[in-house]
Design goal:
alpha+beta; 60s Ribosomal Protein L30, Chain: A; 29% helix; globular
Length: 117
């Protein structure tokens, strides 16, 4: 099976498609001035766009890895937005961790894997 890459840069691709599976790189909000709810909404919108471009959607999520800058402060707010976004009955396996992210204003980064069919 060939490997298809979307939005490839020098260090990474935004998405890689192989064997009917879509792997997304960590996604962030574009506007980093927002609180955890705003950043999570923007991050999930970016995931929606990339999944659609790859030929799938959030109902086919297999796995999610969520990095939060401050898990004590932001876990509930992120989950509020996540729960509203995720279609009923399609919850992926998920890991949520606290991590130092690439810039101080980044509150959340989300990486997902989804099936094509």
């Amino acid at each position: 099976m060939p490997i298809r890459r979307l939005h490839t840069e020098a260090r990474y691709s935004e998405a890689v498609i192989h064997n009917d599976t879509v792997y997304l790189s960590g996604q962030l909000a574009e506007d980093l001035s927002g609180d955890i709810r705003a950043q999570t909404r923007e991050t999930l919108a970016a995931i929606d766009r990339l999944l659609a471009e790859a030929g799938t959607d959030k109902s086919k999520l297999i796995s999610a890895l969520i990095h939060l800058k401050d898990i004590d402060r932001d876990y509930a707010g992120m989950n509020e937005v996540w729960d509203a976004w995720l279609p009923a009955g399609s919850a992926p396996v998920r890991t949520t961790v606290e991590a130092r992210l690439y810039a101080p204003e980044v509150r959340v980064e989300i990486t997902v894997i989804a099936a094509l069919s």
